[in-house]
Amino acid sequence: MAMASLARRRAADALLLRRPQAAAWASALRGYAASAEESDVVVIGGGPGGYVAAIKAAQMGLKTTCIEKRGTLGGTCLNVGCIPSKALLHSSHMYHEAKNSFVHHGVKFSNLEIDLPAMMAQKDKAVAGLTKGIEGLFKKNKVDYVKGFGKFVSPSEVSVDLIDGGSATVKGKNIIIATGSDVKSLPGVIIDEKKIVSSTGALALTEIPKKLVVIGAGYIGLEMGSVWNRLGTEVTVVEFAPDIVPSMDGEIRKQFQRMLEKQKNEVHAQDKGSWGRHFWEWCQVDCGACSWWRAECAGSRYCPRICW
C-alpha cells in the first residue's frame, strides 16, 4: 500500500511538471542514453555521405550513432540545395509557361497570380517528405540518431549540444567526419540573409525582389537566378571566369547561355564584381559593366569545423 501511495504521489508530481522542466528532463534522459554505451561507429554529419555511411555500418552489424546539427537528415543537398532548388525551379517553370506559352495552345488566364507562400510551402513539403524517409531508414536499420552540434573532446568522444537543450557525450571506437560544406562569402561582406543572401537564403525569400545580382555563374547561382527571373525579378549574373558554368562542356555552356539570354537574364562573364555600398533598403555591387542590387551566391567551401 505504501509503495502504491508513493507511486501515485510521483505520478501527481510528474503531471505538475511544467513544459520547460519536462523538456529538460527529456534532454537529460537522452544524454544519459547516448552516453550509456560506446558505439562501434559514430558519424558526425547526416548528409549524403554521413547518413549512407551510418546505414551501411548498421547493416554490417555495427552499433552506429549519427550526429546531425540541423535537426533534419539529408544535408545541404536535401534541405537547402538540390531538392528545394529543383522544387522552386519546377514551380517557377509552371508559372512562366502559364504566363508565356499556354496562350499558344489556346489556354488563357484572366488573372494569373503568384502565391509565393504557397510555392514555398510546396517546396518545404517536398523536403520534409524526403527527410522523414531517411529517418525511417535510420529506425529500420537501428541507427541511433542524435540531434545536435557535435565537437571532439577526445579522440574517441564527441560532446553534443542537443537541439532541445542540454548536452550528451557520444563515445565511439571509430568516428567518421562527414561535415559537408559551408557557404562561401566575399571578402569583407557579411551575409545577413535579408539583403545579402546566400544560396540558402535565396531559397527562402519572403517576397519577390525587383532586382537581383548573382555573383558566381555556377549551377547554383544560375538555378537561383532562373527561379526569380521567371517570377519577375530583373536578374544580373556576374562571373569571374570567361564563361558561365566553367566546369561544364563547351557546347552545354553555349546552349545554357542562349537559354539565359532568352529568359532575359543579363550575364557578365570574365568580370570580377567588387563590393560597393550597403544601404538600409538596397545594396550595390560594382563591376565592369553594371551596378546592381542584392548580392547572392558566391559559392560554397568545405566546412572548416571538425564538428556539426
UniProtKB/TrEMBL annotation:
GO terms for cellular component: mitochondrion; oxoglutarate dehydrogenase complex. InterPro entries: Class-I_Pyr_Nuc-Dis_Oxidored, FAD/NAD-bd_sf, FAD/NAD-binding_dom, Pyr_OxRdtase_I_AS. It comes from Arundo donax (Giant reed). Keywords: Disulfide bond, FAD, Flavoprotein, Oxidoreductase, Redox-active center. This is FAD/NAD(P)-binding domain-containing protein. GO terms for biological process: 2-oxoglutarate metabolic process. GO terms for molecular function: dihydrolipoyl dehydrogenase (NADH) activity; flavin adenine dinucleotide binding. PROSITE patterns: PYRIDINE_REDOX_1. Its cofactor is FAD. Residues 40-268 form the FAD/NAD(P)-binding domain. Belongs to the class-I pyridine nucleotide-disulfide oxidoreductase family.
